Every structure is written in structure tokens, then in C-alpha cells.
């Protein structure tokens, strides 16, 4: 109605994902008697097929979830440490690791999906991966968003001649550019998922698939070993949580960098945002300042200990940040890594959420890294490898310089919120270091201004960059942008009202009294909700 997406609700189950066919794959598992954990793994596998520029079983990520059986929130971390074979001493700047064999970090996604099914699901891997196998074998028609991604990235990947032939053979059998409605079939990927369904994750971490990956990387000059792969193991962790407007918001703990999102909220908690004009200069000035302050703390406190984290969120520390929030002096500082970066958004990440009638609720954010990751597609497997070592810190002089075996700090931030001890909201987004920015903006729209979940996701957003730079969707009024510039923000408008540079959020909310589930999906990408 009124030019907006309708509210999608159900009492039986819900999947919100970055592609309608992936959401449908998850819903299929719910219809077949699976639970939210079966559904979320089926969705993840299907995303590997239908958004290969963002998703792969070779990527990494994490899940924040509510298990009805356990009655609590927990986090599954499938971001493996930097492999022991990584030759960190060879590199001095981030751009050295943009593409190619040395950019490839350990594949964590498959291990994570399988662990969720093993611990909390009830279906077999053959059942969970069946939708993805069918999509890869039979093919699917490319949408406008997929066409844009392929046609933007394929020419860029041609610069790596040793990588492009494998990429083109797998994704461009008809040559390029691709077109809307063109059918993409991935028979090698179907065969790979079939083998995993039969043999389990060891097919990758100790078996034939891993051997093919290692051999191909070595043929390109890489150093990854089977010992590296065998060391990959998802880790169950206790979430880090903070309260905001009556919700307790849970995110993965460090080395995940999601605490920036919670710190932004805590800084804003001292302001009566709901009493301001929505999307006006006072509202946006406070939110942008809080985001930049929290980003500065996150960068300075890279991978903080629990003691350091407690000190960051102590009331005296928050009070100091709130004073800075409202002192009127422009806030200037980094938003990405510890040194200034170019205004870029290389991360191709996806986030998706699922719920079921039993009370389970889960949000996953996982990624391939950059678009099509490292650019390497392993011949005969259909598997595109990540480039997550691009998110390690190899810059000369950095206090956070990475070493083999180090934890890999990651800006993914799947969140699960509770109210009075009951799960009420699973919410996540892609967007590299903009992830925590996007979440903050949407939560303010939802909680402070009372927007329904879908409307909160659709509300105009902005992406902050290093220094004072901000890019905003052009639905924000020009006079508001002018006032924000007067207040010290170097803000410009995108030439569009909707851009994936401001994320691609998916969410599921649950009414703890009625059990009604509400799904919401971001129109900035191919987001869709499927209810059962």
C-alpha cells in the first residue's frame, strides 16, 4: 500500500534473506518439518548459488541465536584465525591482499552452517542442502541486481588474467555481459554440495574438496595447507550485550567488532531522539556524531579484552562520550581501520534471519569479502574463494599488525534482541565497516521514532567515511544536508535515494505475547521475506 512493501507476518515461521529464492529455500525446510536452524543453513547454501558475488561456503561469518530448548542467547563464531601458513612479513599495505592466492583466508562458513544443523537442527545435511543443489543444477534467472553485480565486477577481474579464466568458465559460459533473465547453471557447485551432503564438512576440511583447493592455490603461488584447513573449528561464545530503550541487544563478542554498534546506541541513550524531527538535522547530527565517536573507540581498542570492554561501557566513560556528543565541536576521525582509507566499500556480505513456531530465532551475517572474494574459482568445484586476509592489518607501523595464528577482527554484527528475557528481534546487515553504522540508524528509526520494522529498514540512511566525510541517500532533504554541513559534517548526497552502500538489512521480529512473527527485507538489494 502507498508505494511501500507490505507487512509480512506469520505464526508458523519466517525467513528474511537477500534473495527471494534463498528465502524460499529456507521456508521449504520449515514446511518440511525443519526448524529455524535447518532453515537458516538451507538459506545460506542457497545464497551461495544465487548471489555468488557475496556468498560462498568458503566465506566466514557468525550467528547470534536464541535456542528455545536452551532458553538463552548464544553466538556461533565461524571466523577462523589467520592460518599459520600466512606469509604476513611479505606485505606492507592492504592493497597487496586485494585478490589472488595470498588473500584467501580459512573457509569458515560451511563449518558454521553444519554446526548449527548438528547442534540445533533436526534435518540431515542432504535435506538442508537439497534446495541449493537443485538451484545450482537446474539454474536460476538473473535479476537486475545480480546483473549489475556481474557486469560491474567481471571487467575488474579481467585485470587478474590468471584468475579470470576460471571465473569466466564458471559464471560466464555465454560470455559477458550478462542480462536480466539469463539462466546461470553451476553444475560443479551442485556436485560439490552433493558430496558435502553425503560426507559432511570433512569433505572440505579433511577431504577431497580441501585437497583440490590447496592444490589450486599452490599452483597460483599460495601456501595454504591441509593442516590449516583441518584446524578450522566453529566456536560457541557468550554474546556481548547492552540495553537500549528497553531492549537487550546481543552481538558477537571480540574479536568481532560489533561492540561499536552497541556503543553508538549507549552514547545516544542519553538523548531524547524521539522528541526531535525525524530525519531532521538535530536527529541526524546526533546519530552521525555518535557513530563516529564509537568507531574511533573501536579502532583504538582493537580486539579488546573483556576487562577493557567493560571499561569502555562503564558509566563514566559513556558520560564523557555523551558530553563530546553534544559539545558542538565537529567530530573528525576514522571509521574503517586504524589509518585513513579511501572511500570504498569492498565488502560483499549478506545477512539473513529465520524464526519458527517453537520459539527459535537466529541471525547470520556471513561474507565472501570483496565482490567474488579473491577472484579464484577452484576448477571443477564451483567454489569461489574468499579474500578475507584483505581485512587483516599488514600496514607498516600499525599497532594492530596481524600475524599468523591471530584472531581476525571482523565487522560483521548479527544481532538478537530480547525484552524481559524473551527473544523479540533478529537483525543484521552487510556493508563492511558501515554495518554498525546501518544498524544504529535503523534501530533509532524503529525504537526512538516508533517506525514499523519494514519502514525503519526503508528509512533513508547514510554511510560515514574517514575524516568528516558522509554520503547520504538523496531522500534526505537538501536543507537538512546544508545544515549538517554547517555543523561540520562533510556530507554529500548519493545520486539515488536507495544504495547498497548503505547496507542490505534483513530482520525478523517476534511478538512474545501472540507469537506473531514479522519479517522485513531491504529493497536496497534483492531482499525478500517468505512466511510459512
Radius of gyration: 22 Å
Summarize the main sheet: 7 strands, antiparallel
Straight-line distance between termini: 22 Å
* Count, helices: 17
Could you tell me the mean pLDDT?
94
Any low-confidence stretches, pLDDT <50, length ≥5? Answer: 339-346
**What is the topology, as strand order, of the major beta sheet?**
1-20-19-15-14-9-8
Strand content: 15-25%
Q: Helix coverage percent of residues?
A: 25-40%
Task: Give a count of the beta strands, DSSP E runs of length 2 or more.
Answer: 21
Estimated structural class = alpha+beta
Shape: globular
Describe this entry's structure for a reader.
The protein has 532 residues and is α+β, with helices and mostly antiparallel strands. The protein has a domain at 20-52 and 78-233 and 370-389. It is 36% helix and 19% strand. The protein has 17 helices and 21 strands. The chain has helices spanning 20-31, 36-50, 109-120, 125-138, 144-157, 161-171, 187-199, 202-205, 208-219, 226-230, 259-268, 281-300, 306-312, 315-325, 435-448, 453-458, 478-486, and strands at 8-10, 13-17, 60-67, 72-78, 140-141, 183-184, 235-237, 240-244, 247-251, 348-356, 361-369, 377-378, 383-384, 415-419, 422-428, 462-464, 469-472, 490-493, 506-510, 517-521, 528-531. Strands 1-20-19-15-14-9-8 form a seven-stranded antiparallel beta sheet. Strands 7-4-3-11-10-2-21 form a seven-stranded antiparallel beta sheet, covered by helices on one side. Strands 16-17-18 form a three-stranded mixed beta sheet. Helix 2 runs antiparallel to helix 3 (109-120) and helix 11 packs parallel to helix 15. The longest helix has 20 residues, at 281-300. The chain is globular, with a radius of gyration of 22 Å. The protein starts with 7 loop residues before the first strand and ends with a strand. Mean pLDDT is 94; it is low at 339-346.
Amino acid at each position: 500500500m502507498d508505494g511501500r512493501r507490505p507487512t509480512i507476518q506469520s505464526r508458523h515461521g519466517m525467513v528474511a534473506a537477500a534473495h527471494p529464492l534463498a528465502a524460499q529455500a529456507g521456508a521449504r525446510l520449515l514446511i518440511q518439518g525443519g526448524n529455524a536452524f535447518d532453515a537458516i543453513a538451507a538459506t545460506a547454501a542457497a545464497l551461495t548459488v544465487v548471489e555468488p558475488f557475496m556468498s560462498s561456503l568458503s566465506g566466514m561469518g557468525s550467528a547470534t541465536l536464541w535456542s528455545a530448548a536452551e532458553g538463552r542467547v548464544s553466538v556461533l563464531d565461524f571466523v577462523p584465525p589467520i592460518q599459520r601458513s600466512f606469509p604476513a612479513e611479505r606485505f606492507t599495505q592492504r592493497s597487496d591482499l586485494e585478490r589472488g592466492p595470498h588473500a584467501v583466508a580459512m573457509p569458515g562458513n560451511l563449518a558454521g552452517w553444519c554446526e548449527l544443523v548438528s547442534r540445533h537442527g533436526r534435518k540431515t545435511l542432504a535435506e538442508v542442502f537439497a534446495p541449493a543443489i537443485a538451484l545450482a543444477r537446474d539454474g536460476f534467472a538473473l535479476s537486475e541486481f545480480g546483473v549489475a553485480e556481474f557486469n560491474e565486477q567481471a571487467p575488474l577481474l579481467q585485470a587478474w588474467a590468471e584468475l579470470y579464466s576460471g571465473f569466466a568458465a564458471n559464471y560466464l559460459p555465454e560470455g559477458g555481459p550478462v542480462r536480466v533473465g539469463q539462466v546461470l547453471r553451476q553444475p560443479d557447485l551442485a556436485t560439490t554440495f552433493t558430496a558435502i551432503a553425503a560426507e559432511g564438512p570433512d569433505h572440505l576440511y579433511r577431504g577431497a574438496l580441501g585437497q583440490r583447493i590447496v592444490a589450486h592455490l599452490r599452483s597460483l603461488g599460495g601456501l595454504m595447507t591441509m593442516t590449516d584447513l583441518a584446524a578450522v573449528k566453529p566456536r560457541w561464545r557468550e554474546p556481548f550485550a547492552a540495553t537500549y530503550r528497553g531492549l537487550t541487544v546481543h552481538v558477537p563478542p571480540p574479536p568481532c567488532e560489533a561492540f561499536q554498534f552497541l556503543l553508538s546506541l549507549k552514547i545516544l541513550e542519553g538523548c531524547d531522539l524521539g522528541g526531535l524531527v525525524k530525519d531532521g538535522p538535530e536527529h541526524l547530527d546526533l546519530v552521525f556524531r555518535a557513530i563516529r565517536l564509537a568507531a574511533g573507540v573501536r579502532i583504538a581498542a582493537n580486539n579488546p579484552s573483556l576487562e577493557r570492554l567493560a571499561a569502555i561501557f562503564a558509566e563514566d566513560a559513556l558520560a564523557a562520550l555523551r558530553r563530546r556528543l553534544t559539545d558542538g565541536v565537529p567530530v573528525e576521525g576514522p571509521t574503517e581501520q586504524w589509518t585513513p582509507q579511501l572511500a570504498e566499500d569492498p565488502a560483499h556480505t549478506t545477512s539473513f534471519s529465520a524464526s519458527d513456531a517453537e520459539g527459535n530465532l537466529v541471525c547470520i551475517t556471513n561474507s565472501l569479502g570483496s565482490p567474488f572474494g579473491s577472484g579464484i574459482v577452484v576448477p571443477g568445484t564451483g567454489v569461489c574463494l574468499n579474500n578475507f586476509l584483505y581485512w587483516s592489518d599488514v600496514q607498516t607501523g600499525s599497532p594492530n599488525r596481524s600475524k599468523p595464528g591471530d584472531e581476525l577482527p571482523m565487522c560483521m554484527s548479527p544481532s538478537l534482541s530480547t525484552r524481559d528475557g524473551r527473544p523479540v528481534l533478529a537483525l543484521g546487515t552487510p556493508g563492511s565497516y558501515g554495518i554498525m553504522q546501518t544498524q544504529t540508524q535503523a534501530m533509532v528509526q524503529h525504537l526512538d521514532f516508533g517506525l514499523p520494522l519494514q519502514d525503519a529498514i526503508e528509512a533513508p540512511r547514510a554511510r560515514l567515511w574517514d575524516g568528516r566525510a558522509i554520503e547520504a541517500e538523496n531522500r534526505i532533504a537538501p536543507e537538512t544536508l546544508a545544515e549538517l554541513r554547517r555543523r561540520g559534517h562533510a556530507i554529500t548526497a548519493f545520486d539515488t535515494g536507495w544504495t547498497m552502500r548503505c547496507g542490505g538489512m534483513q530482520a525478523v521480529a517476534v511478538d512474545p505475547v501472540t507469537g506473531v512473527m514479522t519479517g522485513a527485507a531491504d529493497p536496497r538489494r534483492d531482499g525478500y521475506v517468505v512466511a510459512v
